[in-house]
Amino acid sequence: MKRSPANMALRWSGRILVAAILLFVLLPGIVVAITAFNDRAILAFPPQAWSLRWFWRAFSYSDFGRGFWNGLTVTLWASSIALVVGAAFAIAIHRYNFVLKSLLEGILLSPLIIPHYTIGLGVLILASQAGAGRGFPLVILTHVLLVLPFVMRSTFISLENLDGRLELAASSLGARPGRILLTVTIPLLLPGLLSGWLFAAILSFNEFTATLFVSSQATQTLPVAMYNYVREFADPTLAALSVIYIAVTALLLSLANAFLGLGKILNVDAH
Amino acid sequence: MLMHTDRMGATAGSEAGRQGQPAVQLDGVTKRFGNSVALHEAWLKIQPGEFMTLLGPSGCGKTTLLNLVAGFLEADGGEIFIEGTLVTETPAHQREIGIVFQNYALFPHMSVANNIAYGLKTRGIDRKQIARRVDEALALVRLDGFGDRKPRQLSGGQQQRVALARALVIKPKVLLLDEPFSALDKNLRGSMQVELKQIQRELGVTTIFVTHDQGEALSMSDRIAVMSAGRIRQIAAPGDVYRRPADRFVASFVGNVNVLAGRLVERRGEVATVSVGDMRLEVPAAPLAKLAIGDDVDVFIRPEHLAVTSGRTPGSLCGTVTTQVFQGDHIDLYIDITGVARAPVLLRAPGIAALSSCPAGADVGLTVGSDDVVAFPPEAREP
Ligand SMILES: Nc1ncnc2c1ncn2[C@@H]1O[C@H](COP(=O)(O)OP(=O)(O)OP(=O)(O)O)[C@@H](O)[C@H]1O
Ligand SMILES: [Mg+2]
Q1: pTM of the full predicted structure?
Q2: For labeling, which of A266, B73, B270, B332 is most exposed (least CB within 10 Å)?
Q3: Best mutation site among A172, A176, A180, A185 for testing chain B: the one with the most B CBs within 10 Å?
Q4: Which domains does chain B have, with CATH numbers?
């Protein structure tokens, strides 16, 4: 094929466009990452001098440490409860009640329709009506509500891909429904359940809006602690925290990818 | 192959057989999906050790019938008995039935051995015995040493045999097979048919086999139930289904057949005489009971029952050869018989003599060299 000048121009403009889009998407992250190493306490860009002290502050500021552990507690409980409840609900609807399928669709779409602050506010009102305090159970309950649709969705997709004849074969071999669930259904749903759990955990750990309503000084999660910090101080500590967060997430995802296959975990594999 | 000796004692000659109960019995079983009737009042008795085939076109209700026997579906009417016991309401896991699906449905997360052991574990059998019976089952299907593999590491035919072993190892009261070979290539299908038939005979296990392949049905079955549109049309031995089809659906679905226009000439007890052109043929009278003498009938003649005569002989049909197809061991001749058959009649001439004696365009005479001719009333015309 002949490479005419017009052709070359087209190829180069294509490459430049791709680079521009990439830059556009990554720019905020890059700016924040550079800021994290800024020696100055003001959020100035570009930095005049370099330092690692904001990283040190991010680690030593006690609200962040507590927020991290609070967030981890809330995330583990919320995504695990959501996994059990959501998977059970999805399996029950899938198996027994086709009328409820439209209800399921409603639930699955609800995160697009109901904003997080509505859920936070709603839970807060209900809790004060019931006289419940702003403890961990309240935060966890809120997060369960938020992530449930995602767990149900991934369970449901896996169920749709599960060959029903496997369960029939098991029952013809003498297995009771409970045994079929434990030996056939759940093992085969495991990638879907794991992916649902992971989605839920990531969402829950990062959740801010609803958590702001239902958490207290004692139960605030990392994002809430960061919000409170930025209202008081204007220094690059948050930028340092972002860099740490991105690095840790990337590490975890590469591990998950190496051991389990990210496509499988995120359910983006075509079945 | 140790398995069959104790199996023979355990299932084939079981109490039901001794009491003379059918292994499977359907009494007017009906199944509806919404408004459509998938199975209409099926009556069927299968004897212990019998190989019964359900044959019919796609969507005629074969799988539905099988699922009803397995307990995967609930009947909307009628009763089902297994070895004389009413099981209509019994859940699938208590029916002790072995089933092999078209796609094998092997548990992908378990090894071959664990797949086969699954039904034994649910029965709480001790480990040693499970291991022994799994080995026997693997030997039975000639897969010794494959126990540690995962199903996806096996070929289609091997997976099929694992599925068979898994179903047989529990000593089922009935073995159900839903188009088990349709995903296999032709050669493999042939050898699997032979193997299945051999195992089935050795074990003496009552079998219901579903297929829409008439060759498979004719070659393997003790009896065939021919189905169409949710109804069982005929239950008979393969030879009888082929030679004495009960209605025009069975006649045209099983084997090749020519349909010629004829007329009812005479009826004497069991036998009726029909005329086709100048030719007179004797046919079973039963299907023609509602007709009057002189009424139109459709006469069904198999290609291999027609023969070519040299020149015109009285009482024969005459036609023109339109096409000749060399098939190796025989020749297919397509013969135009104006006024008697709408489409060219297919004639199967053995040997290769017909290749030169009946070229395309030749005028030939036709005779029928068999008693296996049947006639049915013409298809009801749409009003
Ligand atoms: N779960 C179902 N819901 C609704 N209709 C069904 C269902 N299962 C089967 N049918 C209908 O019942 C009829 C019989 O189906 P069945 O599966 O028994 O046919 P089949 O003889 O096994 O066909 P094939 O050779 O294609 O497997 C068909 O018309 C089918 O559409
Ligand atoms: Mg079918």
Answers
A1: 0.80
A2: B270
A3: A172
A4: 14-248 (3.40.50.300), 256-381 (2.40.50.140)
